[in-house]
Prior knowledge:
Keywords: Membrane, Transmembrane, Transmembrane helix. The chain crosses the membrane at residues 34-62, 74-97, 126-146, 158-178. The protein has helices at residues 2-61, 64-67, 72-109, 116-145, 153-186. It has 187 residues and is mostly helical. It has one domain. Helix 4 (116-145) packs antiparallel against helix 5.
Amino acid sequence: xxxxxxxxxxxxxxxxxxxxxxxxxxxxxxxxxxxxxxxxxxxxxxxxxxxxxxxxxxxxxxxxxxxxxxxxxxxxxxxxxxxxxxxxxxxxxxxxxxxxxxxxxxxxxxxxxxxxxxxxxxxxxxxxxxxxxxxxxxxxxxxxxxxxxxxxxxxxxxxxxxxxxxxxxxxxxxxxxxxxxxxxxxx
Length: 187
């Protein structure tokens, strides 16, 4: 009888320790996932800023006063690079939105408190994605204006300016989210 009681108590204690251990691991996983989310945000911001710089260089290469004469080949190269970095920034922005949403859902399912700043940061990721997507589409349009079948330097300049504006807004939003996530992670 005493042996059965000891086994029962040990079994209950084992389950208790296992439950505590699993919660500790889940907490570590959420912490690690939050750090991964911060890294994704940082990568998105860096790609967005590089895309903005390349867009500005593309715009400047079409003006005579910068290079001595308009250099369409250089503008084409900068625009192609802009499209690549815009694509990377936009893709990581939607990944960050989805991943942040998963972290929020896991915290809710575990009964953990989710602050408004975390939900707000997740919404900002979605806004960043839409601005980035619009900037990406405009940079692709700018690239198309450099081809012979749609040749228009003015159209390329306008599309590039609008693309740079959208990409700048997207990058600023991501930097804002990055700042929020760093503050939340420090708590």
